[in-house]
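Lecture 7 notes: from sequence to structure.
We start with the chain below.
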Amino acid sequence: MINQEDVLETGAALQTEADQFPGQEFRSEESMLRREGESPPQTDPGAASSDVKAPDPGFLRRSDAGSPSQSGTAAGSRKKAPKSVVTIDEQPSVETVAEKAKSDLLDLIESMKSRRVLTGIIQGIEELGDNPNNSVAVIYHGDYKIVIPMEEAVELPAGFSGSNGDEIRHMMLSKRLGAEVDYIVKGLDQEANVAVASRLEAMRAKRKAYYFKIGLDGNYLIREGVSAEARVVSVIRAGIFVDLFGVETFITVRELSYQRLLDASSQFRTGQRVLVRILTVDRSNRNHIKVSASVKQAGVNPLERALRMYTVGNKYVGTVTMVDASGVFVALDGGVDCLCTHPKRGRPPRGAQATVRILGIDHEASRIWGSITHIAIAK
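Predicted structure tokens for the same chain:
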């Protein structure tokens, strides 16, 4: 049987020793057994006397961190600290899904309240109701679906006075599938994740900023002789339609390349960005600015260098690229098209190898002409 007086004497002795060595920690036998991984001895409740009280542990000096039971309880009740992100730069550059969704929403709200211009790709054309000519352009901004009504997406050609305006708009909008366009949000439904926007309003804002705003040098930002980026919004065989800071203009196939180009779609696609040179700007009507531009004149004419590779009177080999009423065009090395007269042996097929004698070179006009002396047709 446990003697209460013996326990109290032992506790008093530990307390006296602890007072003599204040820098050390003293633990009860039970706590030390738990630290060593052993279970403390269990006392049969029936064997202990009911009048025996356990010693008050308050007089024992223990280490709070020394007992696994105590440290485990403290760790379990303490909340886990949020995981931090180790970033490459001072500020994180990679957004989480929640941060991206919040940023997308703020973009739309800011555009709606302050008329901020946003940019997106027309990823779909949806018809409304049974009328195929009543359609909308669809752009996705994160998880939000941006809907641009047809009449707010494309402008009818200047001077158009026909009665089939909706049909023309629908055709023009369909040709702009995949185009990169600007828009301003007009309405937002956060629960449905849908917003309504206007492309034409964004184009008007761009025209005001680039065609009528005076820069620090005292000139308009977009003016004759300036090189600028343009967005290809539609491509046909005869040329490309580009969005030039709020103005759509058509560039013919002859102004796309110094080399002979028969089909613009062979080198250009909707959604592409190209460098153009501004040829003329007509600001007489603020609502209908007229601009002419050229892709080929924005770069260096490769024919000027290539023409120096050839001399009059010598023979060179090339490939027949086209035959029309004006003659036979033979592509020489360096992208030079030599115009030759029709040979007496008959019209050569496209792709045939031809030997030409150079008869003349006009370096100012970047033209070269000659005559075909031999034709090799692959069998």
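Points to note: The longest helix spans residues 97-114. The chain has a mean pLDDT of 81.
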